[in-house]
Structures are given as structure tokens and as C-alpha cells.
Design goal:
- This protein is of the alpha+beta class and 175 residues long.
- The protein is built from six helices and four strands.
- It has a single domain, classed as NADH Oxidase.
- The protein is globular.
- Helix 2 packs antiparallel against helix 4.
- A four-stranded antiparallel β-sheet has the order 1-2-4-3.
């Protein structure tokens, strides 16, 4: 089977990670794959913030847990040491789709490199808050950006989940 198709078919969302940091060269390759995602009219209106700093990673995790209403101590990033925050420029008409394509590329590239990943939602709600808008400005990111997702990265702690059977009646042909 084609290597790309095999990667697509075997990638799974990982929800338990070892604390080991992902090597920088792998993170760089994963980010590069994200930057090559298709975008409407090639506007490339998506930014990726790579968070390796444990203190800030934990702050994002706490904020996400608070938004979700989780109890104290729950880590919605499942122990993953790296968070790639994907933001999309709302001035681009296809910004949600463009950011989603970046997220897909990030997760597929991670799997191809032996790194676990999972799309964690609520980046939109986090980056709508004034504190986080100010933080973006401190990084030099100004304008109207929406959080599309957090792509968590790390090494799988345990066995990777198996694929669920594909549902029937999902493809229709018009010939």
C-alpha cells in the first residue's frame, strides 16, 4: 500500500503520553508539514505557535480544563509535552478550513515520524480572551486571529488504539 495512504489509515488520536520531550528536528518537520497545507487562494493565513515551555503549556491546559468545567488536576492535553497552537486569520474567507487542513497535516506528519498527536479543541475560546490576545501581541501577532485547535505532540504511553470499523453508507456514486 502507498506509504501516505497507510499513514492516513493508521493514525489515531493519542490520549496518554510519556513526559519525554519530542526532538526538535521532529517538531520542525511536523510544523513544516503543517505550513504546506492547502489554503484558499494560497493565502497561507495560518500561524502555528510551538509551545514547549512546561509552565505555559500547563497554563493552557488549566485554561482549557476551566472552560470545559473539568475538576482540578485534569490535564486535557493528556500529559503531552508539546502543544502546537494553530491560529487562522479571520480576514481570510476560508480561515476555518485552512486551519483545519493545517491541523490534519500536523497530525499525519507526527504519525509518520513516530510521534503521537491529538486535536484538542477550545483554542477558539482561549484565544478570544483579552489576556491571550495580549499574549499574541507580545509575540508580534496582531489582527483578528481565531484559535482553530491545539495539536498536542508526544510519545505514546502504551499501545496505540486500533482503528474502529468504518461505518457503512458513507459513499455515494453519481456516474
Amino acid at each position: 500500500m502507498n506509504e501516505v495512504i497507510e499513514t492516513i489509515k493508521t493514525r489515531r488520536s493519542i490520549r496518554k503520553y510519556k513526559p519525554d520531550m519530542v526532538e526538535q528536528d521532529k517538531i520542525d518537520q511536523i510544523i513544516e508539514a503543517g505550513l504546506y497545507a492547502a489554503s484558499g487562494m494560497n493565502q497561507q493565513g495560518v500561524k502555528i505557535i510551538a509551545v514547549k515551555n512546561k509552565k505555559f503549556r500547563d497554563k493552557l491546559s488549566t485554561e482549557k480544563a476551566k472552560i470545559d468545567g473539568w475538576r482540578d488536576g485534569h490535564d486535557p492535553f493528556y500529559g503531552a509535552p508539546v502543544v502546537l497552537v494553530v491560529l487562522a486569520n479571520k480576514e481570510c474567507g476560508t480561515y476555518v478550513y485552512d486551519g483545519s487542513l493545517v491541523m490534519g497535516n500536523l497530525m499525519l506528519a507526527a504519525h509518520a515520524l513516530g510521534v503521537g498527536s491529538c486535536w484538542i479543541y477550545r483554542a477558539k475560546e482561549i484565544f478570544e480572551q483579552p489576556e491571550y490576545k495580549e499574549w499574541l501581541k507580545s509575540l508580534g501577532i496582531e489582527g483578528d486571529w481565531e484559535g482553530i485547535g491545539h495539536c498536542i505532540l508526544g510519545y505514546v504511553d502504551g499501545a496505540e488504539p486500533k482503528a474502529q470499523p468504518r461505518k457503512e453508507d458513507r459513499v455515494y456514486w453519481v456516474e
